[in-house]
């Protein structure tokens, strides 16, 4: 039956009659219609209830149509207007609206229509996610900090598919935009960063903003998962996508017809997923190397569902943000955008201090101490380490008046010892004021807390052996841990959704803390064979051929423990090795002797030292060396960095000296190795023992000004200094100018893509003037204006050695370009000067266009 739509538009009432059949079969989301008819007072509560009592869906629609028609033309018009306005929910009826040429009347267009279905579920999600994300984890379950009171921005750097930096993100929201998408077919926004750099907190902030409707996104649903949850399923377990979404996030109430899920399947772009900690399930993914799922109704193992979601086989078009530790390889075709988190910049750190210390005198004290220690600042650029340092400072300061932040040679082991000391003293009452002044006795605290500490260490070790991160209460008890111990702060309970079967499940506050306790466990255990302390070195080596540790060394060691899973990432094991080096170091002997039999401690120390010496020698020997025009060049592998970190943690000058002596090449390349400022202390610890000149390429890392300050003692002997793309400001150039002008041996100075201004340019000019061997200076992509350009051009005029200067990507303007053109004219040896790159100029000999056109000047003969 077709209504003949003539010149005169039919009434809405008659439309409902003529198209009753279409409406009865296609009108879904009935609740939304009822909500809006009720809120606009076309229906009353009793009438709504009467519809809800009606048995089937079609009958409910029939009833609504009858009621609307009884109420009159405007009610019918409004009913159609609801279908028209909430297009997503009534997508099947949109062709019908076209067919009837529906145009809302003036009367109904002023009325408000709200999409209450499926937004009811969305609101529930927002409520629950808002509740779950409002607090930052803190130590102990007694104390929590509001996310908004402590959240501080961190450096987020965009990369393209070729791993080239595209600059920093200004706001968190840019994470979800289409800017810097390098693979439009990819489905996943990939966020990577080192341990504790703030990946989980970044997701938490994103979720929290969404819950408050403060995130600019179309997503009306958000599902958050921690990847480690996916490895808790049995191999044979199969679940549906619906269960994965609702059972492990909040459940839609009153949805007998599956409308929420149907909506999600039809409109995936309305869904945002966050997956945290992809690195933690690498082994399991390898085991589940099975075809992906492509139907939303098909049951599959949760890991299959996960990979299918990430690749877009399931819910294609949904937004997905995935985090992982640095070094995890993700299939390129799946990734559409990549962001690397770099931690706190110096100004972020200042903000964080302000937020953390409400008490002004405490804040000032911390600021002074940090200013005096670039090394500590470097460590504090990792938010987790910063949080531990500040938290323990606050806590220990309430216990002991004289407590100061640790000295400049603080190691990561010191930081985690502080954390443990804080936990172990929390249960003790605050000391009386007389005691406060000199009562801090760390060894005493550890001795009296040995029982729980040993219990946690045992639990942590069991976890690594089994490859699990969750622990049941029974497992805690089996390790001798009591209910009181649970509250000390080492553990936290797992969210209800992550383990719906067993509510009393715990995990360590942070994976790095678990790594630390594992190292403690290896030292405390007096029953294991001695060489068990090396088992994670063995495992790291087994996993990566390129490891810093020689494989042959491990053939004699105990076999891989049963149940241990192989993993593409072994960072948590590397951390355990590092902490082992720290806990078995000389400076920690007096503390550890209180906890382990001194004889055994000595044996373990000796074993570790001999192992490290052997492996360092073998590693250095095995490094790939290239003969170049500039001499022997060695390209260091990322694992070299772990070796350096371990050496620094041992504090052993002997091993450091031996390493320095072993590096025979004149040029070390550490580019793209993810070196952060804290690592520069370790590098310097070794390099300071080197007598010979050295070239150092640390391009494309994250060393920042703190790192350069840490390298200060090694800089004067450097011939090649390449610190391109490293967030350096003028204060780094100050250090460079001071040091490089001491021995004047520098030949190459790479500072491309940093944050150098005219003040820094003036200092570089000084280096150019004073260092007679300097040939190449790269200063492109900085913040140099004509003023800085003039300093540099003047210095270049005087130099006799320089022949290659990179300046493009600054704002030199005509004036700066002219200054360089002039320098070039005066300078017989300068053959290559770049002040911008496009379009490539056709230059024969000298050819200058109008000053503003001087893009690239190249002298060709
Ligand atoms: N942006 C931030 N603002 C304030 N504190 C932060 C921030 N990021 C991280 N932190 C602090 O550091 C701790 C560790 O951060 P988070 O768990 O996010 O690190 P992660 O990168 O996920 O580490 P991992 O890879 O080891 O899981 C947080 O609990 C918090 O105390």
From TrEMBL:
One of its GO terms (biological process) is regulation of apoptotic process. Keywords: ATP-binding, Cell membrane, Cytoplasm, Immunity, Innate immunity, Leucine-rich repeat, Lipoprotein, Membrane, Nucleotide-binding, Palmitate, Repeat, Ubl conjugation. Transmembrane segments: none annotated. This is Uncharacterized protein. Residues 8-80 form the CARD domain. PANTHER family: NACHT, LRR AND CARD DOMAINS-CONTAINING. GO terms for cellular component: basolateral plasma membrane; cytoplasm. Residues 187-389 form the NACHT domain. It is found in: Basolateral cell membrane; Cell membrane; Cytoplasm. It comes from the Eukaryota.
């Amino acid at each position: 039956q077709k209504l003949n739509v003539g010149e005169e538009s039919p009434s809405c009432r008659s439309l409902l009659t003529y198209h009753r059949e279409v409406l009865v079969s296609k009108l879904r989301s009935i609740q939304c219609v009822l909500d809006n008819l009720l809120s606009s007072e076309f229906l009353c509560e009793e009438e709504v209830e009467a519809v809800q009592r009606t048995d089937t869906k079609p009958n409910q629609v029939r009833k609504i149509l009858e009621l609307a028609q009884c109420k009159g033309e405007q009610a019918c018009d409004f009913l159609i207007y609801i279908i028209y306005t909430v297009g997503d929910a009534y997508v099947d009826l949109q062709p019908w609206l076209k067919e009837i040429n529906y145009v809302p009347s003036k009367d109904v267009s002023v009325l408000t229509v709200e999409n209450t279905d499926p937004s009811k579920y969305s609101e529930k999600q927002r409520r629950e996610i808002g509740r779950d994300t409002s607090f930052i984890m803190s130590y102990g379950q007694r104390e929590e900090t509001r996310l908004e009171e402590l959240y501080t921005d961190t450096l987020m750097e965009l990369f393209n598919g070729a791993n080239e930096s595209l600059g920093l993100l200004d706001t968190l929201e840019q994470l979800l935009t289409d800017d810097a998408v390098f693979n439009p077919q990819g489905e996943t926004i990939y966020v990577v960063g080192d341990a504790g750099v703030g990946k989980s907190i970044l997701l938490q902030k994103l979720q929290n903003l969404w819950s408050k409707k403060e995130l600019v996104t179309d997503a009306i649903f958000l599902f958050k998962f921690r990847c480690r949850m996916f490895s808790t399923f049995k191999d044979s377990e199969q679940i549906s996508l619906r269960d994965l979404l609702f059972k492990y996030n909040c459940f839609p109430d009153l949805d007998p017809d599956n409308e929420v899920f149907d909506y999600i399947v039809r409109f995936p772009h309305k869904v945002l997923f966050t997956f945290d900690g992809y690195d933690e399930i690498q082994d399991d993914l390898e085991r589940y190397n099975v075809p992906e799922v492509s139907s939303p109704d098909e049951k599959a193992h949760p890991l299959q569902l996960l990979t299918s979601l990430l690749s877009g086989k399931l819910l294609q078009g949904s937004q997905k943000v995935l985090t992982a530790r640095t070094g995890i390889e993700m299939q390129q075709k799946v990734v559409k955008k990549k962001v690397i988190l770099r931690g706190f910049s110096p100004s972020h750190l200042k903000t964080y201090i302000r937020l953390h210390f409400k008490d002004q005198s405490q804040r000032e004290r911390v600021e002074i101490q940090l200013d005096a220690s670039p090394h500590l600042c470097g460590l504090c650029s990792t938010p987790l380490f910063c949080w531990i340092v500040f938290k323990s400072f606050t806590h220990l300061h309430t216990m002991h008046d004289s407590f100061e932040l640790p000295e400049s040679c603080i190691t990561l082991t010191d930081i985690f010892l502080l954390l443990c000391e804080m936990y172990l003293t929390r249960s003790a009452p605050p000391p009386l004021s007389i005691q406060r002044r000199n009562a801090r006795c760390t060894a005493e605290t550890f001795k009296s807390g040995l029982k729980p500490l040993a219990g946690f260490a045992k639990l942590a070790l069991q976890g690594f052996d089994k490859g699990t991160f969750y622990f049941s209460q029974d497992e805690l008890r089996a390790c001798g841990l009591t209910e009181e111990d649970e509250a000390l702060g080492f553990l936290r309970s797992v969210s209800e959704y992550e383990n719906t079967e067993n509510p009393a499940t715990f995990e360590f506050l942070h994976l790095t803390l678990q790594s630390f306790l594992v190292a403690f466990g290896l030292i405390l255990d007096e029953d294991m064979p001695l060489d068990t302390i090396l088992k994670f070195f063995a495992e790291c080596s087994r996993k990566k051929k390129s490891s810093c540790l020689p494989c042959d060394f491990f053939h004699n060691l105990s076999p891989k423990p049963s149940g241990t899973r192989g993993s593409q990432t072994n960072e948590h094991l590397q951390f355990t090795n590092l902490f082992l080096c720290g806990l078995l170091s000389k400076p920690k002997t007096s503390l550890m002797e209180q906890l382990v039999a001194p004889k055994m401690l000595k044996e373990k120390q000796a074993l570790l030292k001999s192992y490290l010496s052997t492996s360092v020698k073998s590693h250095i020997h095995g490094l790939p060396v290239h003969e170049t025009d500039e001499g022997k060049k060695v390209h260091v592998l990322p694992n070299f960095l772990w070796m350096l970190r371990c050496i620094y943690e041992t504090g052993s000058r002997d091993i450091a000296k031996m390493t320095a002596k072993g590096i025979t090449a004149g040029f070390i390349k550490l580019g793209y190795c993810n070196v952060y400022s804290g690592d520069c202390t370790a590098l310097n610890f070794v390099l300071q023992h080197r007598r010979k000149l050295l070239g150092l390429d640390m391009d494309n890392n994250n060393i920042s000004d703190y790192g350069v300050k840490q390298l200060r003692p090694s800089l004067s002997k450097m011939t090649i200094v390449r610190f391109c793309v490293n967030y350096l400001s003028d204060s780094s150039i100050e250090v460079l100018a001071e040091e490089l002008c001491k021995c004047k041996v520098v030949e190459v100075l790479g500072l491309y893509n940093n944050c150098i201004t005219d003040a820094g340019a003036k200092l570089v000019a000084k280096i150019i003037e004073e260092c007679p061997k300097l040939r190449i200076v790269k200063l492109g992509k900085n913040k140099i204006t004509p003023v800085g350009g003039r300093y540099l051009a003047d210095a270049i005029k005087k130099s006799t050695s320089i022949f290659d200067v990179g300046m493009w990507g600054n704002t030199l303007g005509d004036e700066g370009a002219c200054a360089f053109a002039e320098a070039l004219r005066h300078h017989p040896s300068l053959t290559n000067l770049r002040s911008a790159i496009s379009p490539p100029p056709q230059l024969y000999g000298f050819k200058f266009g109008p000053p503003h056109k001087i893009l690239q000047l190249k002298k060709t003969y």
